[in-house]
Amino acid sequence: MREEPVDVVIVGAGAAGAALAWRLAETRMNVLCLEQGDWMDPSQYPSTRLDWEMRAFGDFGLSPNSRGRPEDYPVNDSESPIAVSNFNAVGGSTILYAAHFPRFHPSDFKVKTLDGVADDWPLDYARLEPYYDQNARMMGVAGLAGDPAYPAKEPPLPPVPLGKLGETLARGFDRLGWHWWPSDSAIATRPYEGRAACIHLGPCLSGCAQGAKASTDLTYWPVALRRGVRLQTRCRVREITVRPDGMADGVIYFDADGVERKQRAEIVVLACNGVGTPRLLLNSKSSLFPDGLANRSGLVGRNLMFHPYALVRGVFEEPLEGYKGPTGCCIMSQEFYETDAARGFVRGYSFEMLRGMGPVSTALWGLSSGQVAWGSEHHRDYAALFDRTAGMVAICEDLPEPENRVTLDPELTDAHGIPAPKIHYRLSENSQRMLAHSVERAKEALEAAGARKTSAHAPLRAAGWHLMGTARMGRDPERSVVNEWGRCHDVRNLFIVDGSLFVTAAAVNPTNTLQALALYVGDTMHKNLSNLFD
Amino acid sequence: MSQPVFTADEAHALARVLDAVLPPSEDGRLPGAGALGIAGAIEGAVRRSPDLGVALRAGLAALETLARHRGPGGFEALAPPEREAALRELAAEQPGFLPGLLFHAYAAYYQHPRVLEGLGLEPRPPHPKGYEMRESDLALLDAVRRRPALHRKC
Questions:
Q1: Cβ–Cβ contacts within 10 Å for residue A70, how many?
Q2: Which residue of A has its CA nearest to B137?
Q3: Helices A429-448 + A163-176 axis angle, to 10
Q4: Contact list, A113 vs chain B (CB under 8 Å)
Q5: What was the pLDDT predicted at A3?
Q6: Which of A374, A388, A397 to mutate to test the interface with B (most CBs of B within 10 A)?
Q7: Which tens digits make up the pLDDT trace of A115-162?
Q8: Which helix (H) or strand (E) holds A226?
Q9: Nearest alpha carbon to residue A37 among A215, A299, A212
Q10: Which chain B residue is nearest to residue A197, measuring alpha carbons?
């Protein structure tokens, strides 16, 4: 069955797809977005129920392999020390993200020039800066101006409260003379554009029942829909189809009833992020593109980058009120962000402070780490941990390596029989040295803040939520998949606007940057509509 | 109505085991897990994961056998320290018994309203009431503000 053709079909309604849809609405083109997930109902989010902590082990888990939602597709990550985390819904992974919302540094776009590794991006910080600003207004970024780690920027909302926990950790950083700053957070600290203010629920990672966290179902989508963009949910795209001249002519997808349909379009845009996008391209084989669509360079799926994470927790003598406030938005440090050859690795990492754990999480962490015994000592052990823990994660820059890649699993498929992605990934020597360095510095910071003991875990297996590099941008068609504004070198009416574009990973959460990129791509498309395919 | 997961004897024994692994606190603020009815949550977990039920039933039977070496009245008749010792003996002999039980017992216990109250918390989910947080002391940033730019010029 054939649908009426549209000007633009966007695949994926997450962070980037939403931003692009909003931007393209201005063009008056007929824009349709297909999303395999559905709208979420915030009144059903875990924080509305007493079992909120345990649902992170169930239907709000990070891994699509264990979550059990029908809209998920499996990912074979058995050959990777880092497992893929994502979410499929209108809003995508912004439903579950922490909303920690830093920008890249200017140096992140020039790593080859500055440090002799990887590649420079085909654009720079100055090019993206107006789109970062635009995204800050649309998402509602809370933060504090004046951070010496960044060029000047003005977050539109005041920062998330530090709380007793944040101030305790900040004093530790001050004692060491290390940089720290209130985190840029995509959280409405005041009522903002129809969103309620944050009331410090805590469990941002399982959806914000208050609606204060900037998931794109609450930010970009309502505006885009009002402006005429159409969004069809529970539609899973199987492949992109091409005409005899090699241009894309639409997509084949399964609708909510499982019926196979064809959607024709003048322009196809992929916004499925660093695993979903290469999966779709590799599943779009044809006689013209036998190795997958837009893959003449052989780079589709290659150069997969995560952010290797180290998690270090400290246990303090005094209660920290750590169950109050956004889990991942408190303070951050970029003392070790830029390259210092004396450290034994190139590039660097950020520290992001985590709030404390809830009652169940404390008990289960205490159980698994041997710190909370069962039996007669139980309540003594538990009392020594509950509301007395603070965490730090190091977000380490991963360098692109062709061997780290997404392929199609020869056997595993999703519910529609579409081949599933397989992850091939190993930690580089550079990443391992960086992780080890970050663990020692985190322990030092926690001890300076008063922790009586610390424990570390690196790499954190569950932390594969930043998926980047698998269809990277560049000017050379031999060394990149898309050009400097997201258009595929091989298929001139096929665009990509997600984390796959990233040339390098930086050492911060990528959502702000991939949304700024989507706005930049949309803006460039708009400006070049008359000769878009030249 | 669904069939019970455990026999009456097994359910009784499970409650005693739960009171041994999560006993009442000495100050009386926190109840034992058995008295609190956490066995119901364990039954729910067994319905979702039948393998857990197999391990628990086998463990409860083995525990009773071990306990009878300590006294003719079995586990029920043992004093709390003896119950704990019997459980440790069982854990050494059957290492698969306790981990699954403890995971579900800890999880159910620490989301129970009476336990939350015992910890000094309001017995409610975070939403819709949320939590008050104090104003931040941003004077802590004074030293950082005095630092030169940390980012490299490009």
A1: 11
A2: A167
A3: 100
A4: 154
A5: 72
A6: A374
A7: 999 999 999 999 999 999 999 999 999 999 999 999 999 999 999 999
A8: helix A220-226
A9: A215
A10: B130
Record the tokens describing residue B62, joined without a space.
Answer: 């083995």
Would you give the distance in Å from CA A249 to the centre of its chain? 29
What is the C-alpha separation between A413 and A402, in angstroms, rounded?
A: 24
Dihedrals phi, psi of B68, to nearest 5 degrees: -70, -20
The pLDDT assigned to A2 comes to 53
In this predicted structure, the answer to whether residue A1 has a pLDDT above a threshold of 60 is no
Q: Are A230 and A31 in contact (CB under 8 A)?
A: yes
Residue of B nearest to A189 (CA): B133
Alpha carbons B51 and B47: distance in angstroms, whole number: 9
Q: By CA distance, what is B104's nearest residue in A?
A: A364
**Is the separation of the CB atoms in A379 and B118 below 8 Å?**
no
Query: From CA B54, how far away is CA B19, in angstroms rounded?
Result: 21
Number of helices (H), then strands (E), belonging to chain B: the values are 8, 0
Distance CA A305, CA A398 (A): 6
ω into A278 cis (within 30 of 0)? no
Length of chain B, in residues? 154
Beta strands (DSSP E) in A214-298 are 230-232, 236-242, 248-254, 260-270
**How many beta-carbon pairs under 8 angstroms link A with B?**
163
Q: Stretch A22-30: mean pLDDT, rounded?
A: 96
The pLDDT score that the predictor gives to residue B1 is: 59
**CA–CA separation, B130 vs B126, rounded Å?**
5
Burial class (CB in 10 A: 0-12, 13-18, 19+), A226: exposed
Could you tell me where the beta strands, DSSP code E, fall in A290-376? 309-315, 331-333, 349-354
pTM of the predicted protein model: 0.96
Q: How far is A258 from chain B (nearest CA, A)?
A: 28
The token pair that represents A268 in the structure block: 């196809």
Contact between A167 and B84 using a beta-carbon 8 Å cutoff: no
Beta bridge partners of A391: A313, A354
Rounded distance between C-alpha atoms, residue A188 and residue A197, angstroms: 5
Minimal CA separation from B39 to chain A, in Å = 16
Tokens (6 digits) for A169 = 């950790």
Pick from B147, B133, B103: which is nearest to A187 by CA? B133
Q: Which residues of A115-144 are buried (b: 16+ CB within 10 A; e: fewer)?
A: beebbbbbeebeebbebbbbbbebbbbbbb
Percent residues over pLDDT 70 in chain A: 100
Q: Which of A104, A147, A379 best tests the B interface by mutation, with the highest count of B CBs <10 A?
A: A379
A458: left (phi over 0), alpha (psi -120 to 50) or beta: beta
Q: How much is the CA Rg of chain B, to the nearest whole Å?
A: 23
d(CA B103, CA B62): 20
3-state secondary structure of A430: helix
Q: Which residues contact A297 (CB under 8 A, 6 or more apart)?
A: A477, A478, A479, A480, A481, A489, A490
CA dihedral A19, A23, A28, A30 (to 10 degrees): -30
Segment A351-376 mean pLDDT: 96
Under a CB-based contact definition with an 8 Å cutoff, are residues A534 and A337 in contact?
A: no
Residues of chain B under the 50 pLDDT cut: none
Amino acid letter at B149? A
End-to-end CA distance of chain B: 70
Mean pLDDT of A204-208: 96
